[in-house]
C-alpha cells in the first residue's frame, strides 16, 4: 500500500497516510478536525539505482550496456549512480 501526503488548508498541518489505491481521499484534518485536507503530489517512494535491469535489459545492438560505454571518466561514473539518461 502506498503512502499519500496531505496538507490541511485551515491549519497547514502536513502528514502521511497509508492507504489503498482504491480508498477515498481523506477529508478531515486529524489536527484541527476541519474538512480542509488536500492530497499532495509527491515523489515516488523508491528509486532505481546502479547498473540494474533498467539500464541493460530489453536493449539490443548499440544500446546495450550504456554504463560501460566509456563516455565518462571513471570518477564521475563511480559517484553517479542514478542511471543513463539522468540530467545531472
3D architecture notes:
- The two termini are 31 Å apart.
- The chain has a domain at 3-40.
- The chain has a 3-stranded antiparallel beta sheet, with no helix packed on it.
- The protein contains 2 helices and 3 strands, in the order E-E-E-H-H.
- Strand 1 and strand 2 (14-18) form a beta hairpin.
- The protein is an alpha+beta fold.
Sheet with the most strands, sense and barrel status: 3 strands, antiparallel
- Regions with pLDDT < 50 over 5+ consecutive residues? 72-78
- Based on secondary structure, the structural category is alpha+beta
Q: With helices defined by DSSP (H or I, 4 residues minimum), what is the helix count?
A: 2
- Write down the oligomeric state: single chain
What sort of overall outline do the alpha carbons produce when their principal axes are compared?
elongated
Beta-strand proportion: 15-25%
Pattern of helices and strands: EEEHH
Widest β-sheet, arrangement of strands? 2-1-3
User: What is the helical fraction, as a range of percent?
Assistant: 10-25%
What's the alpha carbon Rg, rounded to whole Å? 21 Å
Rounded average pLDDT: 74
Distance between the termini: 31 Å
What is the number of strand segments?
3
Organism: Methylophaga nitratireducenticrescens
Protein name: Regulatory-like protein
Biased composition (Low complexity): 67-79
Region (Disordered): 60-88
What is shown here, in short?
The protein is α+β, with helices and mostly antiparallel strands. It contains 2 helices and 3 strands; from the N terminus they run E-E-E-H-H.
Amino acid at each position: 500500500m502506498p503512502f499519500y501526503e496531505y496538507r490541511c488548508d485551515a491549519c497547514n498541518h502536513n502528514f502521511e497516510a497509508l492507504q489503498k489505491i482504491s480508498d477515498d481521499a481523506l477529508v478531515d484534518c486529524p489536527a484541527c478536525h476541519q474538512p480542509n485536507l488536500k492530497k499532495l503530489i509527491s515523489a515516488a517512494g523508491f528509486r532505481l539505482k546502479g547498473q540494474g535491469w533498467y539500464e541493460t535489459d530489453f536493449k539490443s545492438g548499440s544500446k546495450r550496456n550504456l554504463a560501460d560505454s566509456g563516455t565518462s571518466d571513471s570518477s564521475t561514473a563511480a559517484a553517479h549512480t542514478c542511471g543513463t539518461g539522468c540530467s545531472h
